[in-house]
Amino acid sequence: MPTTRVEIVVATNPLPTATNAPSVTSAPLITPPPTPAPVVTVEPPTAPAPTQVPPTAVPTAAPVAPTLMPTLTPTLVPTDVPPTALSQPAEPTLPPTALPTQAPPAAPPPSFAPTELMTIPEGTLRMGSPNNDDFSPNEKPQHDVGMGAYLIEKFEVTNAQYDACVAAGRCSPAGQHLNGDNFPVVNVTWYQADAYCKWIGRRLPNEAEWERAAKGMDNWNYSWSNQPAPHFEWQAQYNGSPLSFCEASCPLPHFIQDVNDGFATTAPIGAFSQTEPRRRDISKGFEVADMNGNVSEWVSNWFDPTAYQQGYPVDVFGPDFDTGSKVYRGSSWATEPMRLATRFSLPPDQARHDLGFRCAQ
Ligand SMILES: [Ca+2]
Ligand SMILES: [Ca+2]
Fold this sequence. Notes:
2 domains; 4-stranded mixed sheet; 7 helices; binds calcium ion
């Protein structure tokens, strides 16, 4: 069935200026009450807890992580340091006795291999699309964001990796897999992606982290080129497809008939990540693979089409309240190749056959 991509375009008032500064001057257009995201609170069972853990008792909706992830430190100092462990009472009340005795199978087994993490150095992201083009207003204004160093996984999370989390009782089963163990997991909700990353001590990247890892050192607009027009068709025909997308072999409406990337749906992770003799779907300088192809990827942010107009920190972390949809990024096996600034959104409890994720740290 053809899928429909929805790019929410909100006709907003034109911005005052397209500034490159990581603006903190303008007040947010949205002044929501700081209501926390709808957290599915899992109450620990009181005293006489059942002695056996039902095997299927993995909450589909793991507690929703707030979108603010302070690991990424833009040049501006994050204002909200979560006062978590620091303010714990010195004399805590006795914890329920049932909890410590039932340690869930939390840690990944020794045989589990998490994806290699790539270091993205401190630097400047040119976030969004140029202001003088006709791309979606939700990618504008293009603006610079100073960012601290962070880590992001080199590849998309695979079916095998996700299934290990399911086997450990920390993730609920994904929807139908496409292809085998070494292919990216799809048909996962945002909550499932979030739960997996937490299981291995990581987290979902935010929009700025995803975009910087994808655009590389030189802030390319596409994963294969920085030209205003992608000239994709020419390159694909003469040099081979630079990424996993919907071409001649795709069961969905084709973008380009006379290009075949070799994979009707998903490709094995890293299949397009070669750097020589021609650079393919791997970010220049950062060596992060398949950002723009294969599967689209959930990120941590709640979606707000005016995020860039509001500037920091909404552009980086997203709104701090539930907008009803989470952002996902990058084109996929089921779409045409797209620019790296493209922003998609979907309710966090929904899934797609071309949507997976990768984790950051
Ligand atoms: Ca394909
Ligand atoms: Ca991807």
